[in-house]
């Protein structure tokens, strides 16, 4: 699953740790999501979308291999 978390964080000048604290996960989890090594739960995806005030599909995009 592709994502634009790094870009959205940069727009808000937010560190991985700051986002992790708001979402309630570790910084390492945010890093793994950004590197597309971990697919987060629906709850984490929704929290991230709310924090960035964007629709989920503006932040996360399914790839062909996700089907």
Task: Provide a brief overview of the structure.
This protein has 67 residues and is mainly alpha-helical. The chain contains five helices and two strands, in the order βαααααβ.
CATH topology: 434 Repressor (Amino-terminal Domain)
Q: Distance between the terminal alpha carbons, to the nearest Å?
A: 10 Å
Oligomer class: single chain
Structural class: mainly alpha
How many domains make up the coordinates? 1
CATH class: Mainly Alpha
Radius of gyration: 11 Å
- What is the assigned CATH homologous superfamily? lambda repressor-like DNA-binding domains
Strand order of the largest sheet: 1-2
**Series of secondary-structure elements, N-terminal to C-terminal:** EHHHHHE
Q: Tell the overall outline.
A: globular
Low-pLDDT runs of 5+ residues are none
Strand residue percentage: 5-15%
Q: In percent, how helical is the residue content?
A: 55-70%
CATH architecture: Orthogonal Bundle
Largest sheet: 2 strands, antiparallel
| Helix count, DSSP H or I runs of 4 or more residues | 5
The total beta strand count reads: 2
Mean pLDDT: 97
What labels would you give this structure?
single chain, 5 helices, 434 Repressor (Amino-terminal Domain), globular
Write the layout of secondary structure elements.
Blueprint: E1 2-3, H1 5-12, H2 16-23, H3 27-34, H4 42-52, H5 56-59, E2 60-61
Antiparallel strand pairs: 1-2
Helix pairs in contact: 2-3
């Amino acid at each position: 699953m592709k994502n634009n978390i790094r870009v959205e964080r940069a727009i808000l000048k937010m560190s991985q740790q700051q986002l992790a604290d708001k979402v309630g996960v570790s910084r390492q989890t945010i890093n793994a999501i950004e590197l597309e090594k971990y697919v987060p739960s629906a709850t984490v995806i929704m929290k991230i979308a709310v924090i960035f005030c964007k629709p989920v599909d503006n932040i996360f995009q399914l790839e062909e291999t996700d089907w």
